[in-house]
Structures are given as structure tokens and as C-alpha cells.
Design goal:
21% of the residues lie in helices and 34% in strands. It has 287 residues and is α+β, with helices and mostly antiparallel strands. It has 2 domains: 94 residues, Immunoglobulin-like, CATH 2.60.40; 138 residues, no CATH class. The strands form 4 sheets. The protein has a 5-stranded mixed β-sheet, with no helix packed on it. It has a 5-stranded antiparallel β-sheet with strand order 10-11-12-16-14, covered by helices on one side. A hairpin with a 2-residue loop joins strand 11 and strand 12. It is globular, with a radius of gyration of 22 Å. About 18% of the residues have low confidence.
Length: 287
Amino acid sequence: MNKILVLMIMLLCLPLLANAQAVSTLNDAAQLQAEHVVWNKLPIQFSVVVGKERLLSFPEKVKVVNDDPALTSEKVSILNNSGTLYIKAKQVFEPVRLRIVVVSTGETILVDLSGVASGDDLPVEVVLASNTSVNINNATQSNSATEGTKKNNETANVVSLTRFATQQLYSPTRLLEENSNIYRTPMYTQKTVVLTSGDSLAAFPLISWRGGDLYVTAVLLRNNLHQAISINPNSFLGCWQSISVYPLTTLSAMGSQGDRSTVFLVSSAPFGDALKQNCQVSRGGSL
């Protein structure tokens, strides 16, 4: 009798388990949809649809400083949770500049916040271009990331392009030097792309540069699994002259510190076109 009762309970729970799994799948899919903005000293434009909540995330804990007395709790509510701001607009209002201060470094990020009647509601993750607090496992990686600043006028090639892009995202601002042979170029792509075979990594194109006939694109990679994984260049889709991962080649479980890294892809075509191609070329690894 007890066995029959247990079997009946299990049958009744199956629909609930299936529904819970479906909800979890939807939540995971929603997490993949996010915009990425590189903080490069220009104020970040961030609008929130009235009546909805939108997330603005930073890589570290921050504090919000509102210097405009006109921006009150009647217009917007902001909940700060360990570096993620949950912002809900209560009415339409013109852009108001907020100062977002990174607690650990004191760096200030400017955000022009506005309330709108309609618009995008995807979460936004801010990438710090001048981030110097990244944990690097190998000291030689750091040396190779800054070495290229000494040759800022050399003709662009695979090595110089990769080093230039790495410096732009990871070197301190005071060490950055311009290279007249390398310049920003459109990526012609989506906010998120399928960059690797399988679904273990989420990929978010950040920025592209061009030097001569070559292009280099920085793409943020995030672990989608609840276990550590190693980034395998052989799993990348598209046609690339080189693939360089920096600063981490092994990512920790999703949601933990160290669950993301950056890959720098050098191609002979714009990023969007190279991603659609398939070719056999030599592949790189970590910087």
C-alpha cells in the first residue's frame, strides 16, 4: 500500500518538476540577453520605461551619488545590490546625471538616467576599460599586455592589433597611447552572438578596431554552467587569424567571481562577416 501511495505522489509531482525546469530554462535564457557598454569616460545613456524595472550592473560594488535635487523618489527608485542597480521609473523625466563610484578604487562612472514612455528594457552590464583589478594568473601575461605601448607607430599586424586591443580594455588610462594606424570600426553584429559550439559560453561583442587589412574584436565571454570550464579555441565558430583569451582561460562557475573573460579575435573581415565564415587557420591561446 505504501509503495502505491509513493508512486501516486511521484506522478502528481512530475508536472510541477517539469514546470520548475521550464521556468529555470526561461530564466537562464533571459540572463543571456544583456547589453554591454564599455566605460570610456563618455557618460553612459541609460533609460528606463515607466512602470518597469531595468538592471544596470557593474563588475564591482558601487555607490550611487545623486547631485540633482530634482531627481526624487517620486520619479525613480534605485535599489543597489552588490554592484547591480535595480532601477524603476515612476514617471517620464529628462536625463539626469548620476555619479556611480566604484567602492574599491574610487573611480567615478557617469550615467545619464532618464524615464521614458517606451524603449529597451534589457539589462546593461558595464565593462570598465581602465580596470586594473583583474586577477591575472601569470605575470608574463601582464607584461605582454603592456609591452606594445612602446611601438605605437608600427604597422598593424596580428600581434600588435591584439596587444593594442588588450591595452585599451585592461591597461590603466595613464599608460594608453594612441596608434594612428589602428582605429575604431563598426562590428555589424548583434548584442549577443553564438561564438562557440555548444551552449556553455555566452558571448557579447564589445568593440572592434581596424589596422590595415586586419580587424580585432574584443568579445566578453561568460560561463553559462554551474561548474568551472576551460575556454577551448578549437570550439570557436567563424574565420579568425588568431584567438587570444585574456586574462582567464579557465572560468569559474556561473555567478561566481572569475566566471568571465575576454577573447580577442583577429580577422581579415569585419567581425560580423568573419563570424559567418568557416576556415582553417592557426589559432592562438592565452595572451
